[in-house]
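#help-structures

NK: newbie question. if I give both the sequence and a SMILES, will the prediction place the ligand too? trying with zinc ion
OV: yes, paste both and it writes out the complex. here, I ran yours:
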Amino acid sequence: MFRFLDGLDRRQRLFVKIGFGILLILLVVLLIFRCTRERTNTSNLDVDATEPEIDVQLLDINEYSRPGTESDPITGIVIHYTANPESTAQDNRDYFNSLQDGHGDYISSHFVVGLEGEIVQCVPTWEIAYASNERNHDTISIECCHVDETGKFNKETYISMVKLTAFLCDKYNLTTEAVIRHYDVTGKNCPKYFVEDEEAWKLFKADVDAALKKTKK
Ligand SMILES: [Zn+2]
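OV: that's the protein plus ligand as structure tokens.
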């Protein structure tokens, strides 16, 4: 394979071979570095964008949490946190439903992801929920449960958040550009953990993107 070396003397041949050797080693190192970097950019979850298990428990139609108003075409997914440590998906769903008795608050969410990764749906995706202020009309909201005041999500909750978000992106033909925080709408510290830790937010979006790509293969 080194026929072109025939015209060179022994010393020159040796130099060329060493040169090739160094080049090869550099290429391998570069390749390993790239692969490692790609891997650390996501959490390497075994998650794709197929439909997750969803426990559908629609709220009663009422003016405070499920007005029954049809949404505009969906252009975004908004992530929230419950700001109520240890509360479960069921607690939050039941709270939204109890608002119909007229506590005066207008609050709800399409989905709540619980502490064990359970997903409860409260409002159909074609109706508006009261979660994301001026983006209620054209987004789907996901409330996420958390264990303590830091707002950090446990692994079970996180995996279901990624799966549900990827599923909704796939369903509505959205990219992760359309996945936003409540903070991005109003400046509110919600979801706290993803507002205070920008890297964690980037990682979440990368994980959603990886789940989407896994499904599109
Ligand atoms: Zn929020």
